[in-house]
Design goal:
Layout: E1 3-9, E2 11-18, E3 21-27, E4 31-35, E5 41-46, E6 52-57, E7 63-67, E8 72-76, E9 82-84, E10 95-100, E11 106-110, E12 123-128, E13 134-141, E14 144-149, E15 155-160, E16 165-171, E17 177-184, E18 192-194, E19 199-205, E20 208-214, E21 220-225, E22 229-236, E23 242-248, H1 256-265, E24 270-276, E25 281-282
Antiparallel strand pairs: 1-24, 2-3, 3-4, 4-5, 6-7, 7-8, 8-9, 10-11, 11-12, 12-13, 14-15, 15-16, 16-17, 18-19, 18-25, 19-20, 20-21, 22-23, 23-24
Length: 285
């Protein structure tokens, strides 16, 4: 059974369970929110850039925010100030999603225009080491989106939205990525792993939006129907088995800019939905 936890969002993205609450980016409002299980939301950061695309945390608990179009990675200091965490201009492109693994290594992706070009896959994954050095560690991705790292820090899974796959890489001792392979031939967005090794991802059943639980190889294990497009999901709650889903009224027939303009200036259709999951959260984020 699906329940509505929160309404009135512009577009909710980058769902994370952290410190006993659901955290997310509220596109269009330039906010990072934390939401309790009672549905009460608190603004944790107001980001002075175009869109706070995604969030995660350093091992010491400081919040990281990806300022996507500007290609910046921001860090929130104890006084609430947002500062640049690392110099990323050398990556040469805008950024999208982030995940911090269990060793404190940061992976960010981006580099893809929001209009898929036929035969083009300019997206990348970059590694930011704990000493702040950034380098690309994977190339040629078709709009890289949500990412997750397995609990043993051995594998990175990334959604290639334009390629329609969940793609896996082995993580080397130095954080490099190798052995690229199709983890599941399904498109995705903001993803999360569970203790049985499955991935929850926003997706579709035919032409209807849904949140899908997918096994490696592509078998769909569970489906939660949605009445509007899903953007991200995560697992959390007291036992790690509450599935949080972020959804908004995205119209596939419209272009990216038209959807963003409508959703950030028009009706606030973004929601947080919950359902019970068969297995608890695992890995990162």
């Amino acid at each position: 059974m699906t329940e509505v936890l929160l309404t009135g969002l512009k577009i909710g993205e980058s769902a994370r369970w952290h410190d006993g609450r659901l955290w997310l980016s509220n596109w269009g409002a330039r906010q990072v929110l934390a939401v309790g299980l009672d549905g009460r939301a608190q603004v944790m950061a107001t980001v002075p850039t175009t869109i706070p695309f995604s969030i995660d945390w350093l091992p010491d608990g400081r919040l990281l925010v990806v300022a996507g179009p500007e290609g910046r990675l921001l860090r929130q200091e104890p006084d609430g100030a947002l500062v640049d965490h690392a110099e990323l201009r050398g990556l040469g492109a805008g950024l999208n999603e982030i995940v911090v693994d269990g060793r404190g290594r940061i992976y960010v992706n981006g580099g893809t225009d929001f209009h898929p070009g036929e035969g083009e896959a300019p997206g990348f994954v970059a590694l930011v080491t704990p000493d702040g050095v950034a380098r690309r560690v994977a190339e040629g991705l078709g709009f890289p989106n949500g990412m997750a790292v397995t609990p043993d820090n051995s594998t990175l899974i990334v959604s290639e939205s334009f390629a329609g796959t969940l793609t896996a890489f082995d993580i080397g001792p130095d954080g490099s990525l190798s052995n690229r392979r199709v983890w599941a031939a399904l498109p995705g967005d903001g993803i999360v792993l569970d203790t049985e090794g499955a991935v929850w991802t926003p997706g579709w059943t035919g032409t209807r939006p849904a949140c899908l639980r997918v096994a490696e190889g592509g078998e769909v294990l569970d489906t939660v129907p949605l009445d509007r497009a899903g953007f991200a999901c995560t697992l959390g709650g007291e036992d790690g088995r509450t599935l949080f889903m972020l959804a908004a009224d995205w119209r596939m027939e419209d272009g990216f800019e038209d959807n963003i303009r409508r959703l950030t200036t028009g009706p606030e259709t973004g929601q947080v939905l919950t359902a019970r999951a068969p297995a608890a959260h695992a890995g990162h984020p």
